[in-house]
Amino acid sequence: MTSPTVITGDSEFLKFAFGKVCRHFLLAVAAASLAGCATKPPPTRTVAYVDLNRYLGKWYVIANIPYWLEQGKVASFDTYSMRPDGRMNNIFTFRKSSLDAPEKSWRGVAWVVNHESNAEWRVRFLWPFYSTYLVLALDPQYKWAVVATPGHKLLWVLARERHLDETTYAKILQLIAAQGYDTNRLHLVPQPATN
User: Fold this and answer.
1) Which residues are bridge partners to 144 per DSSP?
2) Which end of the chain is more exposed for a tag (fewer CB within 10 A), N or C?
3) pLDDT of residue 172
4) Residues 24 and 59 in one domain
């Protein structure tokens, strides 16, 4: 652990502050230059239409690009149900680190923002924060779905059963890659052997 910097006098403070500002400025310029060289992923495309009544119910998390709130979560699934106000309850259920751990749930709310397609939602688990939820791919029989956030940061593969066969999962990976996602970032979520 480093000790804090002690400033003793105005001229030393100015040197210290100027040095920090210059370093941060140079780092920002370098980052902007490198960002300009990076290839930009293609824009995210949603499915043409989601029948909300068919979409409601339980969806098991088969794989995801995890973020800090999902680290260590296993046997996870989302359950969607319609509310009288036209929004949806979104209950995220999981076990922490082990399939034998007690089941826990987080209660959220979801609402459609693109009523033409029903494929773009907002999801909130903690007011006033929300995430944008995009349905990128959907099985015609509503047996599996791929949802993501804009910007290619987060993605989930969902299914009505706890497991997908290898052929279906490989097809889903191709769809995800075609949308510009790095499929190597996906992590399979452990699920119990039976529903």
Assistant:
1) 159
2) N
3) 98
4) no
Q: Mind giving me the DSSP string for the chain? A: -PPPP---SHHHHHHHHHHHHHHHHHHHHHHHHHHHHSPPPPPP---S---HHHH-EEEEEEEE---GGGTTEEEEEEEEEE-TTS-EEEEEEEEESSTTSPEEEEEEEEEES-TTTS-EEEEEEETTEEEEEEEEEE-TTSSEEEEE-GGGS-EEEEESSS---HHHHHHHHHHHHHTT--GGG-EEPP--S--
With tokens 């949308």, the residue in question is 179
| Model confidence pLDDT, tens digit, residues 77-87 | 999 999 999 99
- Render pLDDT for 25-57 as a digit per residue (tens, 0 to 9): 434 444 444 444 456 667 789 999 999 999 999
Measure the CA–CA gap between 41 and 59, rounded to whole angstroms: 27
pLDDT higher than 60, residue 24: no
The two most distant CA atoms of the chain are separated, in Å, by 72
Segments forming the whole domain that contains residue 169? 52-188
